[in-house]
Amino acid sequence: MSHRMIRSLALFAASAAITAGAVVAATRQDSDSIGVDTGAAMSTGVTVTESIAPTTLSVTRATPAIKGPAPLPSEEQGVPG
Fold first, then answer.
1. Is the C or the N end of the chain the one with fewer CB within 10 Å?
2. For residue 31, what are the contacts with CB-CB under 8 A and spacing of at least 6?
3. Is 25 helix (H, G, I), strand (E, B) or coil?
4. Which domain, by its residues, includes 6?
């Protein structure tokens, strides 16, 4: 084996060891050290205000402004006559 190949293999092995150590450290990290309360319920950030439902409708019934069929646009109308 040449000196260059041994050096490349050593670099590869060192990189793999460092990566494996980082992965193990990240997965085994204690939840207390990162400030997570594992016993707390999840918070969604929604604010709920309880109130009494109204007894009457606040909106009047909608009525259309046009009575009967609407006229067709000029390009949709048939031949005059």
1. C
2. 38
3. helix
4. 1-28
Give yes or no for a contact between 38 and 31, defined as CB atoms under 8 angstroms apart: yes
**Structural domain includes residue 13:** yes
Cα–Cα distance, 9 to 27 (Å, whole number): 27
CA distance linking residue 23 with residue 29, whole number of Å: 10
The tens digit of pLDDT for each residue in 17-71 reads 999 999 888 887 665 555 555 566 666 777 888 888 878 877 777 887 878 887 7
* Euclidean distance between CA atoms 31 and 34, whole angstroms: 5
Task: Look at the chain and report how many structural domains it folds into.
Answer: 1
Return the SS3 of 51. coil
